[in-house]
Amino acid sequence: MSETSPVSSHGGGASSTYHRTNLQDHALPLVYAKDRSAIAMLEAVWSRKKIGLIIGISQLAFIIIFGFLVDYGWDGSPASKRTSSASHSEVSKVVVVLPGKNASSMALQTVDHPVPVTTSKFPVETYYAMFQDVHVMVFVGFGFLMTFLRKYGYSSVGFNFLLAAYVLQWSTLMRGFLRLSENDYRIKLDIVSLINSDFTAATILISFGVVLGKLSMSQYLIMVLFETVFVTINEWICYEMFFIKDVGGTVAIHLFGAFFGLALARTIHQKKWSHDDFNKLKFGSHYNDLLSLIGTLFLWMFWPSFNAALATDDGRYRAVFNTYFAITASCLSAFMTSSFLSHGKFSLDIIQNSTLAGGVVVGAVCDMYLYPWGALICGAGAGVISALGYFYLGPILDRKLGFHDTCGVNNLHAMPAFLGTLISAIVAGCATKEVYGSGYVV
C-alpha cells in the first residue's frame, strides 16, 4: 500500500499537495527561460540578417512598382509606339508666321506641332558624356573623398556604393510620382531623369558625410529612405513653386544636403564624438590621405560636367567655362589660406575639401553671364571662406554647439552654397534683355 499510495509514501495528503505545487513552481521558470532563449535567438538572427532583409524587401518593392508604373520614355520607345502613345508631353509649341492682308503686314500664331517620331527629345550624344561624369563623381569621387578616416575607410567606399545605388531606384520613383498625371499615370524614363537621380544621390551623400561613422548600416538605409522623399519635395518647391534658377544645385543639392545632415548630427549628438578619441580617427595613415586626395581629384576634374549637365544651348558653354575657372580659383585660394593658417604648411583637411568650393559657389549661376573674371572672384572667395571654416568654425560648432561634422560638410557645401545663393540673387537681379534676349528666362 505504501508503495502505490503517494499519501502514505510522504506521510500525508498535505505533503503530497505541497510536493505537486513545488514542481509547478519549478516548471514556470523553465518555461520562461525557454521563451527568453527563443527571443534571444530571434534577436540574434535579426541582428545578423536585418540588413540583408531590409535591402531584399526594398528591392522587391522597387521591382513591383517598376513593373506597374515605369516605362521607357519617348527616346527609349520604338518609332512604331511613339505615334500611338504620344501624349501632350510629346507635343511642342511652334510659332508660325501668317501673311496679313497686304505684303507689309504679318501675324504670329502659336500652334501645336507633334515631335517627329525619328527625333530624340534628349539625344544621347548630348547628355550621356556628362551623365557619365556625374556618375563617376557620385560613386568614385564622393566615395574616396571620405576614406581619410582610419577606421571607416572601407565603410566610406562600401556604404557610399550601396546607398547611392539604393537612391538611384528610389529617386526615380519619387520624381515620377510627382508627375504621374502629366504622363498618363506612368513614369517615363529618359536620360535627364537618370541625371536627376544622380543629383539626388549626391544630395544624400553630402548628408552621409556629416554622420559618417555614427550610424549602423540599417540606420543609414532608413535615413536614405526618408531623405529622398524630402529632397524630392524640396526640389518641387524650389523649381515648380518658386521657379528658382539653380542648374548646378547650389541650393537644392549642396545647401539642402548639408543642412539636413547637420540637423541629423545635432539630433543624434553624443558628447564622446567631440572628444579626441573619435576625432583621432581622422588622422589615418598616408594611404588613407592619398585615397582621399584621389577622390578630391575626381570631383575637381568632373565638376564642370556636374554643373553643366542640365544646362541648355549657349548656357551649357557658360556653365563649363564659369565652373572651370571658379574651381581653379578655389584651388589656389585654398592652398594660399592653408599656408597662412598653418605657418607655411598645408592642411590636408583644407586641401582635400576647400579646393572644391568653387564648383559649389557658382552652381546656381554657372550658366548665366557671370564673366570669366567674375567666376574667378567667386571661386577664390569660396576657397578662402571654406578654409577659414575648417580652421575656425568647425571646432566651435563641434565643441560649443554640438554639431559634430565628420567630413566638414558645413565648410565645403553649406558655407559656399550660402554664398552662392546670395550671388545668384545679385546676378539674376542684374540680368537684362540686352544680354540674355527677350526669350531668356532667368
3D architecture notes:
Helix content is 68%, strand content 5%. It contains 16 helices and 4 strands. The longest helix has 57 residues, at 13-69. The radius of gyration is 30 Å and the shape is globular. By secondary structure, it is mainly α. It has helices at 6-10, 13-69, 79-85, 124-145, 153-177, 191-210, 217-241, 250-267, 276-279, 286-308, 313-341, 348-353, 357-361, 372-399, 409-430, 433-436; strands at residues 70-72, 91-99, 106-114, 187-189. It has a two-stranded parallel sheet. A two-stranded antiparallel ribbon has the order 2-3.
| Gyration radius, rounded | 30 Å
Count of helical regions: 16
Give the low-confidence spans. 1-21, 87-111
Largest sheet: 2 strands, parallel
Q: What percentage of the residues does DSSP assign to strands (E)? A: 5-15%
Overall 3D shape:
globular
- The number of distinct β-strands equals 4
- Quaternary organization: single chain
Alpha-carbon distance between the two ends: 108 Å
Q: How do the strands of the widest beta sheet line up side by side?
A: 1-4
Secondary-structure-based class equals: mainly alpha
What is the helical fraction, as a range of percent? 55-70%
Series of secondary-structure elements, N-terminal to C-terminal: HHEHEEHHEHHHHHHHHHHH
Mean pLDDT: 82
Question: Which helices and strands occur, and which strands form pairs?
Answer:
Layout lengths: L5 H5 L2 H57 E3 L6 H7 L5 E9 L6 E9 L9 H22 L7 H25 L9 E3 L1 H20 L6 H25 L8 H18 L8 H4 L6 H23 L4 H29 L6 H6 L3 H5 L10 H28 L9 H22 L2 H4 L6
Parallel strand pairs: 1-4
Antiparallel strand pairs: 2-3
Helix pairs in contact: 4-5, 4-6, 4-10, 5-6, 5-7, 6-7, 6-8, 7-8, 8-15, 10-11, 11-14, 14-15
